[in-house]
Amino acid sequence: MYEYTYHGEFVIIKLKDELNEGNSVELKEWIANEFLKTGYNKILLDMSKFKSINSHTIGILINLHRRISLLGGELSILAPNANVRRVLEMTRVSSFIKIYESLNDIKDLI
To answer: What pLDDT, on a 0 to 100 scale, did the predictor assign at position 110?
Structure first.
């Protein structure tokens, strides 16, 4: 469904499109079945291809964060552009979902 790689305890999922009502349900279920059920609960969403995000995407991120946190895991975001980062900061999502600029930023966590 999505490209992904394992980096230590982290699963990095490369999101290629904006999240919408159709693909967001698939993404949440895929993450649950592919990773959370198999014990991988540190998910890093690569949002480098996103030009912007909307309230629907914010809702999806909050939902995923809650779901992953309940399992003792962590949801993080990788490489958002300035516009996406600004929205994440304005909505205070960045206060509970970590944002990493590049893979170099997580090297000490792996």
So the answer is: 54
Cα dihedral 107, 35, 49, 106, rounded to 10, equals -10
Tell me which DSSP letter residue 96 carries.
T
Rounded to two decimals, what is the model's pTM?
0.90
The DSSP secondary structure of 38-83, one letter per residue, reads GT--EEEEE-TT-S---HHHHHHHHHHHHHHHHTT-EEEEE---HH
CB atoms within 10 A of CB 29: 11
The token pair that represents 12 in the structure block: 């990095």
pLDDT at 109: 60
Measured distance CA(88)–CA(97) in Å, rounded: 9
Provide the pLDDT for residue 8: 83
Contacts of 105 (CB under 8 A, 6+ apart): none
pLDDT beneath 70, residues of the chain: 107-110
